[in-house]
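hey all, quick one before standup. I had two proteins in the batch that finished overnight and I want to keep them in one place so we stop losing track of which output belongs to which input. First protein below, input sequence then structure tokens straight from the run.
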Amino acid sequence: MPKSQPFSWSRLLLRQTLKNPTKSPLHFSPRRYIYTLHLPTVQTPKPWPTGRISCSFSYSTVSSRAIQDLLAEVEKERHRDREQRKRAGLDTKDIDQEDEEDYMGVMPLIEKLEKEKLKNTGDLNMYEEPTDSDSDQDDERFTRDAVQKRFDEFQRKAKRHQELLNNFVESETLDDTFKWMNKIDKFEQKHFYLRPEYRVIGELINRVKVAEGKDKFILQQKLNRAMRLVEWKEAYDPNSPANYGVIQHEQVGPSVDLLEHAGFEKEKAIIQGVDDDDEEEFDDMKEKDDILLEKLNAIDKKLEEKLAELDHTFGKKGKVLEEEIRDLAEERNSLTEKKRRPLYRKGFDVKLIDVNRTCKVTKGGQVVKYTAILACGNYHGVVGYAKAKGPAVPIALQKAYEKCFQNLHYVERHEEHTIAHAIQTAYKKTKVYLWPASTTTGMKAGRTVQTILNLAGFKNVKSKVVGSRNPHNTVKAVFKALNEIETPKDVQEKFGRTVVEKLSNFVQLQFNCNRNEYLWLESGSLKLLSTKQGIFAMETWFVIVVSLCISYLLKSIFSLVFRDGTTTRKLTATATLPPGPINLPIIGNIFWLRKSFSELEPILRNLHAKYGPIVTLHIGPRPAIFIRSRFLAHQALVQNGAVFADRPPALATSKIISSNQHNISSAFYGSTWRLLRRNLTSEILSPLRVKSYSRARKWVLEILYAMFCLLALMCFGDKLDEKQIKEIEAAQRRMLLAFGRFNLLNFWPRLTKILFRKRWQQFLHLREEQERILVPLINARKTKLQSKVDQSDNKASEEEGEEFVVSYVDTLLELQLPDEKRKLDECEIVSLCSEFLNAGTDTTSTALEWILANIVKHPRIQERLLAEIKGVVGGDGDEVQVEEVKEEDLHKMAYLKAVILEGLRRHPPGHFVLPHAVTEDVVLDGHLVPKDGSVNFMVAEIGWDPNVWEDPMAFKPERFLRDGRGGDADADCFDITGSREIKMMPFGVGRRICPGSGLAILHLEYFVANLVWKFEWTADNGDELDLSEKQEFTMVMKNPLKARISPRLNKSP
């Protein structure tokens, strides 16, 4: 533009129009809206500044010469765009059509300016832009008096508005209130120019902020609809200044047009550079949109060809074509994800479900139609779908795209990742089943169902589609299922009460009552006296006689009242309990009263030989089922793992030890058990956390009580002194050894609390002693953790060289029980710590003792093991070059792993896993397993199965090696979890498998390797080792291991 020509508003108008052309309502770019009430700022008049204030409000036309220049500039822009398209190898057909259509609306604007010019031909100078000679200084609108007048007028309006508000507040009657409300509304609409649609949008925004759930979703849909209407109105209103680029320019200081003659070269360069950047950005965006559109058209064309070819293609070629069509659909989805969306669709994603081609033969020829099914969602509970038809694929897709946003559904998500309960729905011949899943499961569903669930925001759901796989029927069935999800609020409105809360309150009340009763027993003033064997026997038979009488009386009454019940007939009509010895009325199998549980194993072997792999004993009021078959164990614990994953109700003494079954081993199968187990496995037993305790394993290798010291450090996070270790170990062992002596108290708890108050006090005293020792350690850890949080930089610990270790107690302090909505109390934390110490200490130390005993008994095993260690870590002759076998070397020792596995198979620390229970009555191997019974699996008998192991009672680690001589190890790939097949189960199998099995094997490998590497183990005085067993808390050696140990180093280690 030549500098001599004055800058005109129409030129700026056309320039802005070229940069912002009008677009289709489906492809306009998102806009920003600020819904605020703009009022003039109330300020006191200030003295005029020395600089000049210029405020220009000009609406002018141009002369005929200027119009020609504008048209020439338009043609220049089009020519440049056409050349760029040609250089990029793109089609210019659409640009050529613009010459005739004039899609930017420039010509109507010019015609309007020409008419305005012809109407006022008297004074042409009034349409020219102001120059330096036409200053705003002489304009009467900006004089001091005019500004003061406008300020006074606004003050008067503001004062009047405040008076109306005061009258509204002080109104006493309802009629006066409505009168002043109407006056306020009219006054605001007249003087405060706020468009009504923006007032509606503002009100909707305020409501959305406080709404929740489905109400929030409905308000959001209304808000999106209102914003869309405003958006369309502003984009296509011919009277809207935004569409024609009219800019009401208002600024302080010299206006832009004065820069042409004032010599502000820097300012002009900045303005010109900004315009150039905007033009280049617009050109790049338009070029990218054109390229994307061409790709989409090419894919749509390929889809039409493939669908037409699919009509007469069958067999393998047809399946290949279906896969190609799916790939094209996924490619189209990936391209449309990058496309810009309008504001009211922001955050939504659209996926193609299916495209189908139908051909109908008529007299006029073939009529081809395409059907498209699309689904959309925002990954936060809002999902929709639509089905549309069209003569071409793009038309069908466009129709479905518009319709799917008009058919949105709000779906409730449980814990933001899954559904709250299982659902079964059907639509025509299609049935859809949905089940909730845990956080680590992921999405297990077909392609159609998985696409919809992902769009809705679900992450862990299992699904099964039965019957017709028609995509439309499947989509309808899935949406029907999602709409049937019920929340706790829906259940409350449906039944009028919250059953879960009432039940949890009842359980909490019962537990508190039991605790009060225990405290009452503890407060007795009787001294603890040691009972003699004769008194114990007399008490035992006394409770037997009294219990038999009461049981016989109660059973007689119940049989008279419930003898016509149908429940028992229904259960026994199809299946019966597994066989077993004669069940005497009331007393069941009387031999349990004179045999402890440890002496029950020989009797069970005889019963299995007589009745088969599954037998029943009636121990107390509930039947106890014992299984010794590995096939039945796999069927129960793996194939039906969810049903057999429960625990039976704890006995009276067990409830005290486990804090009413609030630990991992005895908790019922549910959310509490999942929380406690997940906390242990992810926070303490994860590979990274286990590796962080490697220094602790090296530390305990050199001291006594090694295994217990290591577990105590992992539990409490501190290296305890020998006195504390012995005190904790003594308290734990007293509780475990005395537990068998108190089985009598479980026979009839309410009666034994009266008859055997002394024994109950002894048991409660042991529990009190355990809490007295462990609670201070827990509180000390809590204080240390709090001080670490308060101090962002613990310089004292750094100076002393201490390292903060995350302990098991640290993870328990912040846990919150999901059902009871509370944190763990001290008694529950004590129970969990006690469980952690017992499970990781006694079982592992027992297994270590058995393995070392067999190494002493079989010197060839020790020699071969030592040779393998030398081959990995190095060493010549009898002198050891490396003092420690490191953890990272253990995976290279195949024979070591074989020795560990053989020790666990031949001498499992526990010959029975903890009793299981079923969540519902089930049939196993043709026998009934009742819900109120307990299921026990014989670990030792399964590991000694002669059908699996040759010479099972011999200690042969070579059985776990492929070639039997120490080649490639089969031990590394041996499935000790039993998921594929059960050959041994020292840690249990299924969902209740021991969570610390990996840690236990690591500890056994580490300690065995280092003990063999540092010492030579031989029998004491050449005596033959006695490998007899004795049942304590675990199956230990009847005669503890005594061996002669000599260091392998020339110097002391």
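OK second protein, same deal, sequence then tokens:
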Amino acid sequence: MPSSSSHKWRYDVFVSFRGCDVRNKFLSHLFRELRRAGLRYFRDNDIKDIGKKIRVKLFRAIRYSRFAIVLFSENFAASKWCLDELVQILMCRRKLKKHGHVVIPVFFGVDATELSKLTSRTKFGQGFKSLCRKARDKEKIPKWKLALAEAKSISGFDLQKHANGDQASFIEQIVGRLLEYIPRTSSPDAIGVGLVPSSSASVHRWKYDVFVSFRDGDIRKNVAAHFFRALKQAGIYYFGDNEKEKTRILIEGKLPDAIRNSRVSLVVFTANYADSRRCLNELVEILECNRRDHQGHVVLPIFYDVEPCDVRKQSGQFGDGFERCLATHTDDLLVQKWRHSLKEAGNLSGWDLNNDANGDQAYFIEQIVGHLLKIIRRTSSRDAIGVDSFVDDVISLLKIGSEDKVHVVGLWGMKGIGKTMVAQAVYHRVSREFDGVSFLENVGVANQDTLLLLQKRLLHDVLKVRDLEIYDLNSNINKIKAKLCRHRILLVLDNITEKNQIEYFGVGDREWLKYGSRILITTREEWLLNDLKVDDNYMLPGPGYEESLQLMRLHAFGKDQPKEGYEELFKSLVHYAGGLPDFLKTSGFFLSSRQNQWHEILEKLVRNPHLDSILDPFSSLRQSVGPFGGHGGDSFDDQTYDGIRQIVVVIGRVINSITINYVQNGCFVRSPRHGGSLRGHTRYVNLDYPTEYLTSVSGYTSEDYCQVINSLTFHSNKGGHWPIGEKKGKFFSFPQVNGKIIGFHGRCSDVLDSIGAHFGPFGNGKNRWDDGKHADIRQIVVVSGSAIESVSFTYEGPPFRHGRTHGGKTNTINLDWLTEVLISVSGYIVNDFGSTVIHSLTFQSNKRTYGPFGTETGRKFSFPATGGKIIGFYGSSGSHLESLGAYLEPISHLYPIKCVGPFGGQGGLSWDDGKFNGVKKIKMMLEDDVNCISFEYDDNGESIWSSAHGNEDGSSIHTVNLNYPHEFLISVSGYIRHDCSVIQSLTFESNKRRLGPFGKEAGNFFRCALTCHKIIGFHGRSGIQLDALGVYFEPIYDLHLLKSIGPFGKQDRGNPWDDGDSTGVRKIMVKAGDVIDSITVEYDKDGRVVQGPRHGGDGGYSTLEIKLNYPGEYLTSFSGHFGSYQGQIVVRSLTFQSNERIYGPVGQEIGNYFYFPSIGKKMVGFHGQSGWWLDALGAHFEP
């Protein structure tokens, strides 16, 4: 029997359509897009003079087309030719499904239900009835009806449901789905030839490998016993029904579930098979499952001393058995199903004992089991947990069934991700398909002697001869080519690090290799695969959560079941592992030998849920590259952060300096300036954090003995490209790592001598996005139809939207985020025509369950409930939501105090005041810098002054008195001197006002504020001046204290004003130009409309008018910028946020950014200062 890859496709797509409906409209656009995509298609052009030869030609084209698109339009069923084509298409679908033949119905102005109802109330039904009245071949009418009914049950595309009537979008979806299913070749002549269907079966979690349906009395004591033993020896997990007849216990209720959860259904047809009602019902269920399943289910009939034609026609001895069964059953509908199923099964390609094995039972069983092993995912290593889908993907890229060329595939990923393990699994799965196979490990670290041994092993593996006399690397290359050129081989080259390494095995030049040979290369570097000109490359992601947990348990306990009392620890460790199998195994081994320390490790995780490593054996999840450049100057290392917002580069003749603005736990952190002189041109690299991040850096170094950095080019995931400096000297480029840059290191003096980077894992996926980590999740909006179309997450700022909306139902979740947190997400995922789509989502908080949203069909998935909370999401989306992951903060609620900073220089001595109930006073001594600072704290009702941090001999003393406990600090910001040594300026913000600035606002800016947190202590460094300052934050539990905020802007100019409190805000009118000229607010006071005065001048050339849907909609926060304009500090831009949407921005987003996020309370009034323009703005909240 031919394997599923042996069918030769001449065309990619066959299109069946009714010309009068679509030829000059939809169809011409579809054909154009198919051509653009490089898809070779055969189309029926409604030829009027349809002769016998043309009919044969068209039916042959259907059989040799990988896809058949049936375009159902209003007059489709009025055409005899269209219906005959449909019958032929569905016949090919049944015969060629295991070869990858797919039928796609496209409903163009027709609903799928019309195909089965065929009533006169629809034009489609009218056309069919008219045709039936005129038809001469009345015997075809039942076939047409059955074909239409079957087509209705096949998943396809509907113009209205999938594209809301947008034909361009509709065509784009159809062609996109075809391209996902059809592996492409680079040669135009290879289009449609030797195509291997993309495996989607990995999406389905199969409970069994094989379900076997057979008549017990015929073969149980002979061939069945041998067959089941062979399956067991091959490691194939089967569901056997051999005990049902013997015990006469019918468990038919469980059989459909067993059939649906079996990868392959084997139907063993024997002489008395049809004499069993149970066997016939099993056959009906198997074929029904095969018709409706898109997960990779395969049906294989085995004809054991029975001819396929006897099964089809229910004739001969097989037919006699069927008649005996009918004698005791009078249900005509059931009998019709049996007949139809037997006919369908008899038409399927299968195995015949006499034709395929000449009656030899042992050889027959060997053939069947060998074929099953090719279909079923097998892995041999106990560590190969969760890799089956990756193995399937790589095998699909290898295109084993095509022998028209030599194909090279690259498998790449970060260190420890499991590349070698996946390559080994691929090697074992497909080795039987080749004349010779060889797996050469760790080629990249092999010395000359080891390379000689690897050359010898390659020849031995393929030729099966020993004692080969080969001693010279270069001359051996010609010997390898001469001896292996007549063999179709599979060669795996593991851990390639340089381009020339594959030359030692002759595969740098592929012309000598026999067609059909395959080369699989594993490496950490994607750029290397581009240099090697591989045909396809595959980036390997890590295993999922459950697989990671299973792997770690396996190495800690020797089994994959949890040990009582330690499940929380393992969940937390898996969260930090980032899907790295090496880390998971190392952690498991480490824990297995230190069981008495597990509680201590768990305690460390509780106190700091964002640790990258716990103890020394837990190496960091980060991967570092470089530095590239010279060895002069002093080394620097910024370590790692959550992300990067901006890079400031000063360029002269060479790169003079670089400064990086990082983000850590929502706070802004600026690195020291790496380099010397500030003379030169300043260039800025601005990233749209968190959705945009750096993926690589390249540049040029000088070629003299100094070797400093001449130029730099930064590359982002969104195609950002920032070249800075002159491209001369020696080129360098960071190797492509599966991650994003989260920190820099290198060497510097008065210029930048060298540069390297730290990478953090971000996962994998097409059209991927990453919201990053946040303090809280406040709102979720899910738009769903039959699948999840889009999701939107609102954290402390504007919402992050992912996916597209196609007119589905909108569901909004408003979390009571101060006391309610998300702890888990579950849902259903479906692989539809090769594309993974999430069909349903359910969110679980610590208080309630939201959902399900969408349709609960497909494979269920679930995020773990770690005992902590979800603090951010990442995933991928195209036309729908394709994948979803979450950042977890395990058990963080047990330790709510957060330590941030310090910000500033490294001089002086470190100090730490500790944590208190709050801050009452601040005293500062200033000259050009902040010389000294001290704090008065509240310690459980007792006032305590800290030590003076710095030199108390300052000429200017400034004191800040807070109205404690009603007033408390919520943020601190300031400026660090340009040489990053000391703090020059500080500004404090309380829940009621802005305090400062104190000192000179020049240098590098920093700011630290956490949503709904207050400052309860300070720490830092000081000597003769204040070198650095950091803070301790604690959540604000009594939000009634946050009655007002701000104003933000300049508070010592203009006229202060206060609209006071109201019941709510109805309307806002903002006038703006280069600045915010004025703001006017209309309030509601106990049901009365109250118009507030205009605050500001009468200028402004643009207007933002906000009409809230009061009282259901209300304001929750605002943000903006303030900066210098004509020598005055004024508000430059404003953005408002309600509980339903974002309004703005209006004005110019220039200057210092300010933002006060929603605290869960309604804004009921504004206050501020104004003159000619709006100088400052604050707000009041409801009590």
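Flagging for whoever picks this up: The radius of gyration is 35 Å. The mean pLDDT is 77.
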